[in-house]
Design a protein that fits this description.
The protein is an alpha/beta fold. The chain has one domain: Undecaprenyl pyrophosphate synthetase, CATH 3.40.1180. Helices cover about 50% and strands about 15% of the residues. It is built from ten helices and six strands. It has a six-stranded parallel sheet, with helices on both faces. Helix 1 packs parallel to helix 10 and helix 2 packs across helix 3. The chain is globular. It starts with a helix and ends in a 7-residue tail after the last helix.
Length: about 260
């Protein structure tokens, strides 16, 4: 970037940041990380793993932006259940290792707390262990709360929540009729992977795709959506600041 353009860019970014009011920022930002493979393909790199590594490096940077703005919860959609059945085993094996390394890196960054949202039933032991140990190492941390959606699907999460409710009700000796009276949206919410957390205020997807891809179907019922053209490894801080500026100008109606 020419020197003059760099100065203009920084001034523009500074102007956006200055106009953001802390009380108008989202408490919980969810990010659909998309475009890593296309990023590698556009650069004619040998494998998609190059794109996934670039995306992992961007995640560290993105979380720093969020933390510096005092956003308290971030959920990252890294690997869906559909990905586990729809991608080549060689790419998946490389991606498993990249995510496991990312977890190790995040667990030693600042005072961040990691939580896995998803299921480990179709994940390799190395990745399942990394997720578990990342949670354990950061359990006492009080800084940015990071949900890592790995082996995740929104429909699967809702089904798991209902199964959990049924199991608890049965163990307590309850009847189907009683359960019918007790079953409410709040009760289902208490059994989701994100139980006890606020729903995302803002859901961002990179790469220009405009769909939610089975991500946080229950929690995002009233979320604001924002789509960025940039592929995830190319995401700039100014792109994120624009998303926050757009969010701060919206009038949230929560379905009313």
């Amino acid at each position: 970037m020419p020197l003059g353009s760099g100065i203009v860019y920084r001034l523009y970014e500074k102007g956006i940041r200055k106009g953001l009011r802390p009380e108008a920022l989202p408490h919980h930002v969810a990010m659909i990380v998309d475009g890593n493979r296309r990023w590698a393909a556009q650069r004619m790199l040998e494998t998609a793993a190059h794109g996934h590594r670039a995306g992992a490096a961007k995640i560290q940077e993105f979380l720093g932006w969020c933390d510096d703005l005092d956003i308290r919860v971030v959920t990252l959609y890294l690997l869906s259940n559909d990905n586990l059945t729809g991608r080549a085993s060689e790419e998946l094996n490389e991606l498993f290792e990249i995510i496991a390394q990312l977890i190790d890196d995040l667990s030693s960054s600042r005072d961040w707390r990691i939580k896995h949202v998803g299921t480990t039933e179709n994940l390799p032991e190395r990745l399942a262990t990394a997720l578990r140990e990342g949670e354990e190492r950061t359990a006492s941390h009080t800084g940015l709360h990071i949900n890592l959606a790995v082996g995740y699907g929104g429909r699967h999460e809702i089904a798991d929540a209902v199964r959990s409710i049924l199991a608890e009700h049965q163990s307590a000796g309850g009847t189907i009729e009683e359960l019918g009276e007790l079953l409410t949206p709040d009760l289902i919410g208490e059994h989701l992977y994100t139980s006890g957390q606020p729903d995302p205020d803002l859901v961002i997807r990179t790469s220009g795709e405009q769909r939610v891809s089975d991500f946080m179907l229950w929690q995002s019922a009233h979320s604001e959506l924002y789509f960025v053209e940039a592929l995830y490894p190319d995401l700039r801080e100014v792109d994120f600041l624009r998303a926050l500026r757009d969010y701060s100008k919206r009038h949230r109606r929560f379905g009313t």
